[in-house]
Amino acid sequence: MAGDGCNGNGAAAAAGVVPEIKFTKLFINGEFVDAVSGKTFETRDPRTGAVLAHVAEADKADVDLGVKAARDAFDHGKWPRMSGYERGRLLSKFADLVDQHTEELAALDGADAGKLLLVGKVIDVPSATQMLRYYAGAADKIHGEVLRVSGKYQGYSLREPVGVAGVIIPWNFPTMMFFLKVSPALAAGCTVVVKPAEQTPLSALYYAHLAKLAGVPDGVINVVPGFGHTAGAAITSHMDVDTVAFTGSTEVGRLIMESAARSNLKPVSLELGGKSPLIIFDDADVDMAVNLSRLAIFFNKGEICAAGSRVYVQEGIYDEFVKKAVEAAQNWKVGDPFDVTTNMGPQVDKEQFEKVLKYIEHGKSEGATLLTGGKPAAAKGYYIEPTIFVDVTVSGFHKHTAIRKNASHQRMLTWVCQEDMKIAQEEIFGPVMALMKFKYVAHPRMSQTICILSF
């Protein structure tokens, strides 16, 4: 790799703001290389829709090369044979280099994913290096156990690296998800093949470059940008990949589990979609509840698996909550993520932008009342207004009897229901809140996990 390894072919979208895009090729066995097919794909700036860069497109042949490099580095290389202290020292150096490039890396994710530059500088990149340093410190603390066994014998367990880890990361938190999955694998002595989301490949390639500068041996980290049905499928079905970690949709998670089972029965770690509710009771501080619910759904444009997209408010404060929630949403500034006064940038790409707008149309056509938002927030780019629905209808009522301790200690009859509308059932992954009113609390038979906020 000559010089600093730059191989970019994309011009900066906003001179003086977006840094030069330096790395656009695959990173295999310590080198930036073109795809075997020579194909590239576009990654676009969601602020404008303009092309940021053309990135080498990995398919099965490239994944085979990446896995071979990782396999050789694991089976014959020094990384898994280093002491935990030595691995930790190199990972700490890696973290130092990431810290030194915080501004540039936050800007890359801002331009590639529409993420707020300030949040990237203050939260995403520092959190990522904190994770990396945590696992660097854990690398020499991986211990087995001495076991008491019958007879004149001694038993013990030994923890060893599993081998080659396939890592498939999403586009909503490109930096944090890279390190959340790669850091523990490296600390344990595994080697990795990473497929970043096709929407946001730029920072992952930069991290591969910094890892090499830190002294991580060739073949330990390989980055193969590409699409799920080609590069992703090749990783999950590969006979020389020993485990897979994936964050993304439930639908794709099922495919990955099936592919892993049909190949070499590799274990999988799946973090899949959600439809997380907030439950706000009459005794809540309404202003605090409004601010937290706004943050829960509109932070990062609603592109969060744990976004508070369903908000249940007890009837005693419901009207006040609705009024203040609408005001709060209307004061949530949508705009250029590089502007420090902006609260919410654009959706990650045109496909996600159109998907969110389609869900909003579903909500309106199914009879929900749109209180605010619901349309694009700019003439260009993938911006959507913070959106709030009420009158989200329910069906499939199930009678449930519960004992509730009130003044008369009487038996009360309440109801449990399943949401009917798409906006209340399906993960939108965008800035859309469904507000619903409830009266009593029982033990609901819901398929989703419920998180209760207490204020």
TrEMBL record:
<dbReference type="Pfam" id="PF00171">
    <property type="entry name" value="Aldedh"/>
</dbReference>
<dbReference type="InterPro" id="IPR016162">
    <property type="entry name" value="Ald_DH_N"/>
</dbReference>
<dbReference type="InterPro" id="IPR029510">
    <property type="entry name" value="Ald_DH_CS_GLU"/>
</dbReference>
<keyword id="KW-0520">NAD</keyword>
<comment type="similarity">
    <text>Belongs to the aldehyde dehydrogenase family.</text>
</comment>
<keyword id="KW-0560">Oxidoreductase</keyword>
<dbReference type="InterPro" id="IPR015590">
    <property type="entry name" value="Aldehyde_DH_dom"/>
</dbReference>
<dbReference type="InterPro" id="IPR016161">
    <property type="entry name" value="Ald_DH/histidinol_DH"/>
</dbReference>
<dbReference type="InterPro" id="IPR016160">
    <property type="entry name" value="Ald_DH_CS_CYS"/>
</dbReference>
<comment type="subunit">
    <text>Homotetramer.</text>
</comment>
<feature type="active site">
    <location>
        <position position="271"/>
    </location>
</feature>
<dbReference type="InterPro" id="IPR016163">
    <property type="entry name" value="Ald_DH_C"/>
</dbReference>
<dbReference type="GO" id="GO:0004030">
    <property type="term" value="F:aldehyde dehydrogenase [NAD(P)+] activity"/>
</dbReference>
<protein>
    <recommendedName>
        <fullName>Aldehyde dehydrogenase domain-containing protein</fullName>
    </recommendedName>
</protein>
<feature type="domain" description="Aldehyde dehydrogenase">
    <location>
        <begin position="33"/>
        <end position="393"/>
    </location>
</feature>
